[in-house]
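Hi V.,

You were right to ask for the full record rather than a summary. Here it is.
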Amino acid sequence: MSNNRLHPKVKEAQKMMDDGRMDRRAFLRVATLLGVSAGSAYAMSGLVQPADAAGHGNMPFAADDPNAKAGGILKVGMDIQKMDDPATYSWSEMSNQTRHTLEFLTITGTDNITRPMLVDGWEASDDLKTWTFTIRKGVKWHNGDELTAEHVKFNIDRWMDPDLGSSNIGLSSIAAMLEDVGEKKAMVEGSVEVLDSHTIQLNLQKPVLSVPEDFSNYPTSIVHPSFKAPFSDNPLGTGAYELVELVVGEKCILKKKADHDYWGGQVYLDEIHYYDFSAENSLIAFSGGEVDTIIEFGVEQLEFAKAIEGTILTARTSQTLTLRMQVDQAPFDDIRVRRAFSMAIDNAAVKPLVYPEGGDIGANYHVAPIHPEHFDIPVPARDVEGAKALLAEAGYADGIELTIDIGNTDGPWHQTVVEAVRDQVKDAGITLNINVLPASKYWEIWDKTPFGATSWTHRPLGTMVLSLGYRTGVPWNETHFSNAEFDAALDEAEATLDVEERRAKMEKVQKIMQDAAIVCIPLFRPLYSIVNGSVNGVSMHPTKFHLFNKVWKA
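Predicted structure:
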């Protein structure tokens, strides 16, 4: 926080906490988003900052471990994907391959608290429409250039280019700097101002609380102004490591950048190697000593993981599978068909078939119980006769046959979910055919198929997910849902400080989505990973982000 100014809404939040109207976790999030350092916010809340959440002083990384040893290679099992344009990345694996070369303005830790990274801090105006970020001094690109506010402006301007097709356009902070120009959106003139070489100001058209959180979203890594896709051809970054080899579907090799004056302090590993293993084979590779850790393993492998040597890591998340329908494609352009499909499913019966331990039941709106603003609207009870009646009213008295595309992109649990749903909807006269595609093929059509099962990663806020995936016209709106009342209600929720008031506003947002029956979300899943005993400092991030700056090998 610059100039020691305490935002008035921090004082308001602290009073709410003291009066018992805001819990301490919610205060932490509000205070840090409004410019209070994570350490100070933890102290103000009376909570202890967890060591594995990172954040030491004004740095986004954990404190140096006095027992740490420098050197060694960390070997990680994970799908190896292309590294084209970071602003259009569509999955966490791409981000992890890039994350130690390209960095972010902010970083959200495993504790769901957002901290400065390439910025020193930020200030928000009282009305949450003007945000001023101070760029961290002394950050050098691999070519020796110093990171400046102009470089940051280049990135933000670029994200708003409608021809780029970046999903960042759907972020609340970016959307608040756009206006409709014909059929496209374009930046409102004057939205991004460079105040000096290390200070940048964002002028939003509406109040947004989550601006710092948005800048930790995985397609928001900061590229050099000389950037040209693909990134893998010229991997110029500010991070401690450089990309030295990429073979898609095989390996991604990062090495500590020699003679690079890295701003982030000491890093211990000499190299980070990613090796391509399928979801089915990654745990086998780990058990055989081929890798030190893996991005995740599936629930079907949990008993195997318990039987082999290693430390199992877990995280509660908002990761989910959306069985989503495009509302402008027949027969899903008839809301009666969509509602009948939802009514024929018992979500509570699906989750224990897939995740008997951990996870949360979904209620067909894309906000998870872990999200701070989640309003608990239960999923309507299964109503097979009601579903049959709706189908008959829609002209399908003898039932309907549907086909859903799936890719098992996170593992076979996708298919388990869809098969459970298939067996349930059959009772209502719905024949559900399951078209299983290779994961890579699914990602080619995920936003095109009329009916698909798409996995979504964790975001710290439900409002962030809704803005990315369900606002009118955003690039990742795979359902083609467009509802002005929904957009306006989401605007109100995003601008509300009081967590209880924001949660109350989310009732309307979630109800509109649930009633529209555009997605069936039976569950939100836990994550599992494993690490061997020679590796120190690895933790499970709910978005599967890899933060290896302070990881070391014994």
